[in-house]
């Protein structure tokens, strides 16, 4: 049997649902969640917290610092200013995640990692963090960009999924204009034979 669980998430701007698949034999012991302070990453954190609580798993929120290379090459500009600002933001975001974890009695530690200036990108750095944690599951938000915007901006989530060595749960961004609704008292569960 495979359980399909739909979890509604309410946000101030819109509502989104997260669907994840879990077979009866699936055991998550270590879950990594990518966070950056965006609404989508907060939804991913909420989903990861719920799964971690249900599985009694360790949760590791990870914030990746990615300072643009051009900041290091600009004449007269001190790149440590940008790096310090990104580190401060990472500390704020990871502390907020740790507070949520504490309130929900979820164990784990947060981590701030930095991309290699001339090498890897965010997706590659997340992969390294997942490998170091020996993650059983990675949870991350996705903005759901399409067409030309996706071509220009790319997708960290898409790049990560292509390289991932463990299951990945992608949490979609809320649909623009969706009504803010309160989450129903219970999540819907549907069992399907495999």
Automatic annotation (TrEMBL):
Domain UspA: 28-172
Stored Pfam families: Usp
InterPro entries registered for this protein in UniProt: Rossmann-like_a/b/a_fold, Universal_stress_UspA, UspA
Matching Gene3D superfamilies: HUPs
Family: Belongs to the universal stress protein A family.
Protein's UniProt name: Universal stress protein UspA
């Amino acid at each position: 049997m495979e359980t399909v669980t739909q979890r509604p998430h309410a946000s101030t701007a819109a509502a989104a649902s997260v669907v994840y698949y879990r077979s009866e034999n699936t055991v998550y012991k270590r879950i990594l969640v990518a966070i950056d302070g965006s609404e989508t990453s907060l939804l991913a954190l909420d989903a990861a917290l719920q799964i971690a609580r249900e599985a009694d798993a360790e949760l590791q929120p990870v914030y990746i610092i990615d300072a643009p290379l051009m900041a290091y090459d600009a004449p007269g500009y001190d790149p440590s200013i940008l790096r310090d600002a990104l580190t401060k933001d990472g500390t704020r975001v990871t502390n907020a995640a740790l507070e949520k974890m504490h309130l929900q009695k979820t164990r784990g530690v947060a981590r701030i990692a930095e991309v290699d200036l001339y090498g890897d990108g965010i997706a590659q750095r997340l992969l390294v963090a997942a490998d170091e944690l020996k993650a059983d599951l990675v949870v991350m938000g996705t903005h759901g960009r399409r067409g030309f915007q996706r071509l220009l901006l790319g997708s960290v989530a898409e790049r990560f999924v292509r390289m991932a060595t463990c299951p990945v749960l992608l949490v979609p961004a809320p649909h623009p204009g969706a009504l803010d609704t309160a989450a129903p008292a219970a999540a819907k569960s549907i069992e399907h034979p495999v």
